[in-house]
UniProtKB/TrEMBL annotation:
Domain Response regulatory: from-to ranges: 3-117
One BP annotation, GO: regulation of DNA-templated transcription
Function: Member of the two-component regulatory system NtrB/NtrC, which controls expression of the nitrogen-regulated (ntr) genes in response to nitrogen limitation. Phosphorylated NtrC binds directly to DNA and stimulates the formation of open promoter-sigma54-RNA polymerase complexes.
Subcellular location: Cytoplasm
Name the UniProt record assigns to this protein: DNA-binding transcriptional regulator NtrC
Residues that bear 4-aspartylphosphate: 52
Domain annotation Sigma-54 factor interaction: ranges: 137-359
SMART domains the record matches: AAA, REC
Keywords recorded for this protein, A-Z: Activator, ATP-binding, Cytoplasm, DNA-binding, Nitrogen fixation, Nucleotide-binding, Phosphoprotein, Repressor, Transcription, Transcription regulation, Two-component regulatory system
Main location: cytoplasm
Superkingdom: Bacteria
GO CC annotations on file: cytoplasm
Amino acid sequence: MATVLIVDDDAALRDALGEVVADCGHTPRFAPSGEVALTMLANDAVDAMILDLRMPGLDGLEVLRRVRTRSPSLPVTVLTAHASAANTIEAMRLGAFDHLTKPVGRAELARVVRGMLALNEGWAGSGGKPPVQPEGLIGVCEAMRAVQKTIGLLADSDTTVLITGETGTGKEVVARAIHDHGNRAAAPFVAVNCAAIPSELMESELFGHVKGAFTGATADRMGAFRQAAGGTLFLDEIGDMDMALQAKILRALQERTVTPIGGKPLSVDVRVVAATHRDLRQRVREGGFREDLFYRLHVIPIHLPPLRERRADILPLAEAFLAQAGNKALDADAAARLVAHNWPGNVRELRNVVERVAVLVRGPIVTAADIDFLGRSDHPPRAGGPADPPDEDLTSAVAKLETAMIRRALDRCAGNRTEAARLLGIHRPLLYAKMKRYGIEAFEEQTASVSNPDAAKGA
């Protein structure tokens, strides 16, 4: 059983919030002001706090600032009836677990309480420090197992490798794995993106130049081939390389020599791993890529399938990225959502999604709601899924749904408004307001109960 401190200058709301906390199986404590709350925190152990924003004396944001100084790990949720961009941003910047707008439904408040307490449990075992796992080639599906076996077979050789696959599939990760698991691991790994460097600079980037070779050459430059001496040179997106440079790359591969601009040929000891998202055979047929270079690179081909074709790897990858980004875990619905997504951006997109939730999700558990920004899956809906929405505006549809649910709850509870509110997961005053808005019968009698909470409880 945990202790939750509720800080609000409205006694009725404090009681209502405390009722929800008690229903969750925890002990509510109450403070009518920020000053009283800070005194209680100094003297008593508290596991979480629900904090009103607007109060006489110290407001919620100032209380939160002081709490962060004294108890930086205490989960705090801020409540306000007057949410604005400024106070929302500031509350989250100060480390609030959540920022809710009044009135708050029972289910939503219970969710927040569970989340704050789970945050304590999730971080207690790690001492507040998330475990960090090293980068690596992750894959359990058959296609990736085959890639891993191929890497093991070729790692110690000097044979040229060509890695193909869509953008974002992890071609550089494979290249690094080849380097790290081979006998060149202690030497440099140098990566050059052939699509990102202008063609007029690429020759110098790869082969280097001598001082005075051209205007602006104020010093000697080694170039990537010599920088990777004894190790591995990774030529990413080689399919975008200029035709004139392709001939020089071919010569470097065949003769193991490079000629700096303005200099003499030099021997190099380097293993070349190339990668491209393009179909090089098609580029050869179109005259955009040298056929002899293609065959020189295509000694050992490795193809990386897109993430949508290796769904067994989605969760291991996501969990590894979460471990690197923070001490968080996926719940079952979030995991299913990730597996269902088609991942047009492949592993890179998955990593970006994980980094996003690692920053924006306060608690240790990532839910399906936290990744709603992914949009709907491209897969067709399963049988028995939700029916098509009604052909009317949203306000009317919501009003009909709420009216039907309130009437059903009142019927089930034999007209007891307190129990109906509990069944609906909302506070009694909110139930009364909705009954009045929708003209639900017997409202006059029920309003009388609001002014007398004891009578309402006995209704």
